Amino acid sequence: MKRILLASSLLLLLAAIGLAQPQPAPAAQPPAVISSPEVHADNSVTFRFLDPNAHEVMLALEGAKPAPMQKDDQGIWSLTTAPLAPDFYGYSFVADGVGLIDPSNPLMKPNLLHTQSQVHVPGPASLPWEVGDVPHGLVHHHFYKSGVVGDERDFYVYTPPGYDPKAKRSYPVLYLLHGFSDDASGWTAVGRANVILDNLIAQGKAKAMIVVMPLGYGAPEIVVPGPRAFASELRKKNYDRFSQALFTEVMPQVEGAYRVSKDRNSRAIAGLSMGGAESLLTGLNNLDKFAWVGAFSSGGITEDFDAEFPGLDAKANEKLRVLWIACGTDDRLIEPNRKMRAWLDSKGVHNTPIETPGGHVWMVWRRNLAEFSGLLFR
Amino acid sequence: MKRILLASSLLLLLAAIGLAQPQPAPAAQPPAVISSPEVHADNSVTFRFLDPNAHEVMLALEGAKPAPMQKDDQGIWSLTTAPLAPDFYGYSFVADGVGLIDPSNPLMKPNLLHTQSQVHVPGPASLPWEVGDVPHGLVHHHFYKSGVVGDERDFYVYTPPGYDPKAKRSYPVLYLLHGFSDDASGWTAVGRANVILDNLIAQGKAKAMIVVMPLGYGAPEIVVPGPRAFASELRKKNYDRFSQALFTEVMPQVEGAYRVSKDRNSRAIAGLSMGGAESLLTGLNNLDKFAWVGAFSSGGITEDFDAEFPGLDAKANEKLRVLWIACGTDDRLIEPNRKMRAWLDSKGVHNTPIETPGGHVWMVWRRNLAEFSGLLFR
Question: Residue A130 falls within a domain, yes or no?
């Protein structure tokens, strides 16, 4: 490794700036401007990536099998898909084994382990994630130091159109949890929760509600690349501290800052994947606080359900307004979710089983949110 | 180009999802986990990038000349810098001419033309961009349809710690504008404006204020790769519509939703690069609305200053509380900024000339914000 000298007066505050070049050259440009992704009139999409020396470039498109791209004589790799269903799709270019964003596309899919790009295949206004000609709510970004976890962290709060902090009215609240490797921005930046709620509220399909999107890690050290088989202590620590931070840090801040009802009948919790497991564990073990529970493709609950949900039985039906358990039929988590539902059935706990086409993908979760949120607080 | 079939029932809503693979493979992993960037105890930084077949990989680090990385026998390119001054640095890997983010690093530097990565070289709490053990304000994300420009767009609003929408107190407001190719998130995601204000307010170095960060494009079609020499009509359209959207759309929303003073003595406008030019044009041509104007490395004003600022003369001194014109001495925009100041001097318009080390980089602009915001509303 070569050490370059960026500054002569090392460690002085302005050193690196002092020797900055006049107008540093921007990142070198491709020989031609690469247009990618290009969405065609028939909803097929052409992806392009300049990498003259790669031996293999694959397109990893959300919901599809990785597919090889073809190189032209200028070193531009490309692939045109069949027409795609209107939606947002995450994707990467995998060049000789390394997943990369599309450098021609500013639309990111933020993630703590694998930042990707997103492509929007536009569809009709009836799709809930399309920005509609309707009033828009706001997304508020909160920052605080967590005493429970010991880090600086954040959460997001959606307030619906017309929300007035000075009015007397109070709103029901949905706590909406992201999945493993997402950050707190996942449900807005990728899940489009604010757009979905704007549309459903305008159409009368969902009640006006506040949506709180906290950071889902009680043990942030779990967010490392590699196999997902966490030691059971780490998994438990992650859940326990998440739950404790939610109850003692996030909820008090939300209830202090916004006009949210504190009635359990006006409080829901739902999430995807790891956040689905957190929703089930937090919700079903705290029925004094939540009447509405949703799990989208949940993963991370052991099969020792009696230990995960001690004492849960048919008496819960008096308190649970909806227990919604959804999973895509092509998701390997479908079996654990079926087992969870079978156990609930054996205990006489009413639940709404939802199986839809699809894998472990945001296209499933956006639809889950649109459907689940429409049931809430009625 | 090969067309792959992603879905058999094309254009049906769930088609792409229906054929999704069970647990689609994530983007293929590098052979080993690559750690990048690695900040060492002496503030040197090692960058690593796996690209076994590239012929050349350069590190494009903000404020430094692009530097070649060295490849090891596993195909990992790396470079260790000299110790760097504590700061946040944008960077890309330029592999055979293509600028790429660091796939091992989730910290993005969002940009509409060249998304990059960022590395944080931590420093003492006295640096205003370090998250301090102080109360934190909020960042509110607004969405609206612009009648002036005709697009769906957004803006961000920082409210300081302790801001209470129900209290009677009103706050002064700084309109803070990003540069060319940034989006409306630039001043928070890269400029750390919320962190800087949190710290300065806690230390009594800045007044508690609201900061509004609008999208700076009146003509979004200017945001395309290539030379920055816009036709004068397009430049004028971009400025005119930006200004019109600010006055007729953003300011009314802000003044309706937040407790901000409408007194010109409590209203400032500042920005960087393109946003610096917009601040000068908008501020100096509307002294009935702004008493505080700041330009950080401004670029985009023609040298026909009499035409850019019709009628501006020493009478402006009665209204201008601060006119702050800053530029890095290694920025090629230093000369246009000196010419602008010379013209102001020739007209007898008082201004505060600030020249600091550095190029056209965020390290300069964070310091500009910290210094300028401390002068405001006193």
Answer: no
